[in-house]
Amino acid sequence: MLNIKPIHTELSGAMLVRVYENRSQLGAAAGREAAAAIRALLASKAQVRIVFAAAPSQNEFLAELAAAPDLDWSRITAFHMDEYVGLPAGSPQSFGTFLREALFGKVSPGTVHYLNPAAGAEAEAERYGRLLAEAPIDIVCLGIGENGHLAFNDPPVADFNDPLPVKLVVLDEVCRNQQVNDGCFASLAEVPQQALTLTIPVLLSAQWLFCMVPGASKRGAVTRTLHESISTACPSTILREHGDCRMFVDTDSFGAVFS
């Protein structure tokens, strides 16, 4: 196994930021570090609870994690952090489908809790909130959006003190356009206008956050996350206040040239 080292490391608030040459190295390094954290948790507790993001930005990370040796996935309870409302059952754009294909179907976690708003979004938000509240979340694996969103907490609906664990939101146009830019939908008209999302307090409640943000399309969001005042105008700025958030970026998303 090659030892992949960052080409630059810095702190932004309390958040550790590591820069890698490319997204492949970023994903491999993040996957190995997350696997090490999971092993450490499994050594000290019977069950580990992890929330996963579903997006192309997570592909390399999820592939590395799926291949990680010596992980007892039977003792892992998995959640996903958001889901569209209104997609047909089994749609390939569903985040549950994405994670099943990218990770869950390969490693078979002991329990996978899927968000399924088909029978009623509000009722599903309440059900999923109860599942999340059964025990602390150990790890959240996430990215950030082009508008700085965390999960589907876009700037218009983000709340750092949200009283709800899961809520129904209307997606802003920047967020919906990102889904087209990522190749998930052919046109803006096809992107659902609503989604269920875990709220920011739930995401930040985890012991560890692993945040993977590759690609030039995220450069503006990364810059804002690291340097802008902490506010819901760029929700990802709140990551700087978490006690153990590790952000993995590449030279495209970080935007600096290293000699």
Automatic annotation (TrEMBL):
Pfam families attached to this UniProt entry: Glucosamine_iso (PF01182)
Sorted UniProt keywords: Carbohydrate metabolism
InterPro entries in the record: Glc/Gal-6P_isomerase (IPR006148), Glucosamine6P_isomerase (IPR004547), NagB/RpiA_transferase-like (IPR037171)
Keyword DNA-binding attached: no
Gene3D superfamilies documented for this protein: 3.40.50.1360
CDD domains to which the protein is assigned, alphabetical: GlcN6P_deaminase
Residue ranges of every copy of the Glucosamine/galactosamine-6-phosphate isomerase domain listed in the record: 22-242
Keyword Flavoprotein included in the entry's annotation: no
PANTHER family, alphabetized: GLUCOSAMINE-6-PHOSPHATE ISOMERASE (PTHR11280), GLUCOSAMINE-6-PHOSPHATE ISOMERASE NAGB (PTHR11280:SF6)
Protein name in UniProt: 6-phosphogluconolactonase
Native source species: Paenibacillus tritici
